[in-house]
């Protein structure tokens, strides 16, 4: 039972080998943090049985009104809603708060296709407000 950064020790056929016009950035981002390993940028949890669970991007932090918030935190709460199968939370520029956020890609469970977006948005805002804080509540919900 341990958490940490997901790093890969060997090359694989489809791995990236550079960033277009910025090879130095590629090296600094993926190969320098953990010498001898490819750093994926993801957090991971390994169970005592040896199973791996990705916990989210380690670099996905949103600054909302001076509060630093990981996108994975909000996604975890949103995914606990009975109608939500999975979600992705992203930041976007906001005139007052610095950054705003929204569950951009929200997939619903099959029995939930008739869910009204306005109702779902209100329920998700309430859920995130209770579990994290009011400032973390999503401003927009987009069902895909």
From TrEMBL:
<dbReference type="Pfam" id="PF13193">
    <property type="entry name" value="AMP-binding_C"/>
</dbReference>
<dbReference type="InterPro" id="IPR042099">
    <property type="entry name" value="ANL_N_sf"/>
</dbReference>
<dbReference type="GO" id="GO:0005739">
    <property type="term" value="C:mitochondrion"/>
</dbReference>
<dbReference type="GO" id="GO:0003987">
    <property type="term" value="F:acetate-CoA ligase activity"/>
</dbReference>
<feature type="domain" description="AMP-binding enzyme C-terminal">
    <location>
        <begin position="73"/>
        <end position="143"/>
    </location>
</feature>
<dbReference type="GO" id="GO:0006085">
    <property type="term" value="P:acetyl-CoA biosynthetic process"/>
</dbReference>
<dbReference type="InterPro" id="IPR045851">
    <property type="entry name" value="AMP-bd_C_sf"/>
</dbReference>
<protein>
    <submittedName>
        <fullName>ACS2L synthetase</fullName>
    </submittedName>
</protein>
<dbReference type="InterPro" id="IPR025110">
    <property type="entry name" value="AMP-bd_C"/>
</dbReference>
